[in-house]
Amino acid sequence: MSELKLMKGNEALAEAAIRAGVDAYFGYPITPQTEIIEYLMMERPEKRTGMVVLQAESEIAAINMVYGAASTGKKAMTSSSSPGISLKLEGISYMAGAELPAVIVNVVRAGPGLGTIQPSQSDYFQSVKGGGHGDYKLYVLAPASVQEMSDFVEDAFDIAFKYLAPVLILSDGLIGQMMEKVFLKEPKPRWTNEELIEKHGSWAVTGKKGRERNVVTSLDLKSEKMEARVHRLQRKYEQMEKEDLRFEKINCDDAEYLIVAYGSSARISQKAVELARAKGIKVGLLRPITLFPYPKQALFELADQVKGILSVELSAGQMVEDVRLAVEHKIPVEHFGRTGGIIHTPEEILEALEQKIINNGSIRHHKTRESSIL
Amino acid sequence: MEVLDIIKQENQVFCKTKLMTDTPLSYCPGCGHGTAHNLVMEVIDEMGISEDVIGVAPVGCSVLAYEFMDIDMSQAAHGRAPAVATAISRLWPEKYVFTYQGDGDLAAIGTAETIHACNRGENIVIIFVNNGIYGMTGGQMAPTTLAGMKSSTSPYGRDIETMGSPLKITELIANLPGVYYVTRHSVHTHKHARKAKIAIRKAFENTRLNKGLSFIEILSNCNSGWKMTPNESNIWMEENMFPYFPLGDIKVEGKLKQ
Lengths: 374, 258
Hints:
A: Rossmann fold, 2 domains, 14 helices, B: alpha/beta, 19% strand
């Protein structure tokens, strides 16, 4: 049955996985997302739904277990945080190449290197620009609340199986660790093996009963075949852009200035918008919910309406590049964001908007493109 | 007697392994992989389990195993086959799951996955083909390359002082409680191949009985990588590989052999 609960983002995601009928979770502990595997182990999902939960010997093993499970058409997922995701990228690239559906969760912490365990959004490039090797993209969902940590699990699997492609839920330490009320959906049963074979028997390796053998691989030694595979992948990404783009516009109708932010930065920016409007500054917020596909057209159109855009991200300035590309330099676009695990305040965001965009707008077109951190 | 009479089914004493596809093998003439493939497929055919088998191919010479084995297969990233097989076996416990890996894949880049899948006692079969060299990339030093043995990355011979000793991963694996059956064979003569086949059969029977992990090492020549003729390489294998990697059972029914 559905329930209203107070939960941590990580726990809500884990509970949603059980309720979404996920077949398997493979993970390795890393802060700030370890509650996911802890919650799953505590909940005994093998008894609740028959879900397999296994602590792997490394993030590398975990993602390859996901590869194995996904090869057989099962709903499999893993989660980690930034350094662990770096380790998983080889496996993610293989899954993109082999056209396997799976869900990967990144509860981002600040990097590079071991960095720190506090929240960050500095894995944007890694998430939306490929990350691993080769010509692939991930469909990327960016939750901005504990509710979305829960809801996006099922959404992610729907997309993964629609396109036969790995999907990333790009969260961060703030959303993962904070507690909010969450409406948990009615549990769905896992697919039976018969249902799975009916749906995915054309490609999944389940034993070649009553059919020709199936093979899961990302290898095509013949260049022509490999190019055809790459083209097939690109067509999926084009279709994602047409059919599955998600974003949210808040207070944009009369906006003279725009903030673009996703995930935890979108939550904080929402408060900054309120503060600005209390001062009489008409600011709107565009929140990309998917980071790939990206709301390029919406931004392009808003660029004819607003005087300038502040891209807010807990990073040294990554998403700002996509905002600039989307608006094709029609208006000034600047970045604001704290790094190292520090979370910006709504007041800091408003101050940055005033300094970098509102009071400085006219000189923007000719300014060089370096983005200041503060 | 007409030719057509001779090739009648009832006169046939040998035929191509049923579960091998018609795709020409990509292995060098004289290499042991073809025989090893045949044996695994013969066992699966004879056990009547071809519709319930899921194989995992590695990266290395046998990366294309799925082109030759007429069963469902998933091709893993380099070294990760035991992790891939773990998940498949956990999610489809009634299936027969095996990996087919070389020494670079299993004993170098995939050491962690190998040891932990074995330690968990996954109910799978690992077929480990050890030819002491990286064949596919053109004959580089492998974890199992013998002391003093020349390769393109040990052109003056493997120097134990700086390159370490050849890794006896099979003996290492045998010590793990989750591992039920460990044995080492070769396939370079008919006699040896028959013994290897009996071992492979035993391994898949262990899966049937849910006994845990079976680990079959198959020593093979690599005439191309070793820069020898097939015959020379087989003799060299007997004289040099066998003393360091002795053939025979190492662990049977969960008990180490003395």
